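Suppose a colleague, Dr. K., hands you the sequence of a protein chain of 110 amino acids and asks what its three-dimensional shape might be. Before reaching for any lab equipment, you can write down a predicted structure in token form. Begin with the sequence itself:
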Amino acid sequence: GRFFGEENDEELLSYINGFKQIPLPTYFIHGSEISKRQTPLIESLGPEGGELCSNLTYLGNCGKKIINGLSVCYLSGSYDPTIYSNPSALMSLTKGRYSEELVEELLIDG
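The predicted structure, expressed as tokens, is then:
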């Protein structure tokens, strides 16, 4: 699904600014749906992710985290065949698309 949905940032900002509360811990990754306005927000958290507001956490680009005793592997981005098998894409997200090397590393570490 699209966590951020369409270009409507108003609802997300109401949580970030503390006007609304998220009742339960919520963890998310992103696909290719991040808008130009949301990109700086996600990038400000860095590749390791972080908390956007109380109970709302971006997990990060990829990795493994223990959440309440549960081991969770995650991979943000989306599949693009021109990047996936491209050796120059290396171990990072390229324009929101992941590479085969990144997936393999996650499988080995996960």
